[in-house]
Design a protein that fits this description.
mainly alpha, ADP-ribosylglycohydrolase fold, globular
Length: 294
Amino acid sequence: MERLKGMLFGAFVGDAYALGLHWIYDTEKLSQESDKLDGFITPPKGSFHFGKRRGDFTHYGDQSLLLLKSISSNNGFSPEVFKKHWLTYMSKYEGYLDHATRESLNMLDENTHFGSSSDELGGFARVAPLIYYHFDDPLLKKYIEKQTRLSHNNDIVIEFGNFATDLILELIIGKPLVESIDKISKNYPFINDWVASLKLRLSEDTVSVIKDIGQSCSSQFAIPATLYLALKYHDDFEEAMRQNVLSGGDSAGRGMVLGMFLGASLGYSKIPTTWRQSLNAYDLINGFTEHKLI
């Protein structure tokens, strides 16, 4: 359970760590804030998440926590139950509403189960509680697809979700990260092409490479950027998180997926204790890992 718990907490820590500097694209400005990155940061006035506290989540992490609560209250994932919970929660959400959420809120009803066509990584990024609870369920990928299409009805996001799920299932049984990426990507040609090109750039400056790849939310940028960070910092959770934020753009979406990969690979104990315990939802998440009803 060390690696599975690491996967779950890695996702939430990745989001919370990025909260204060999320969606800043100016890497020079970010470099000036680097001395603050020994822990979580309260979002400053004028930022997308102003009003949240240090240790809170972005809208990605909040939806992941909602998924955790939905699974716990239902003793398992139900697409209909989660849809109901998601619509109720997001229609009253006081944090940032991205385009995919706004469009999906307008589309979903009793007979409509698919939301926006957004290709942003955030639709998959919230999935850690589902993988944690149903990791040994043969329906896992179908569940992940249904929760993703609720707000991101996009085949590229789904295909990456299948790859990421295959990877995480390898990692939680102790397989090494880089070798597992190499092995599993062979079943996903578009990811395999990215991995081959990214491995040629591992000696380059991380921020420069991700700026070159693209810093934004779209999967065409966020997926290779996340893979690059995972390949380069496969043995260092803290530095991976730090470089992710310093690279700018959608650091929260990347951070959640990166946190899943490295948490599953390195284990719960390799995530800094102060970071885990600084999550304002720590008790809630930890209770979930102990199979307590919320």
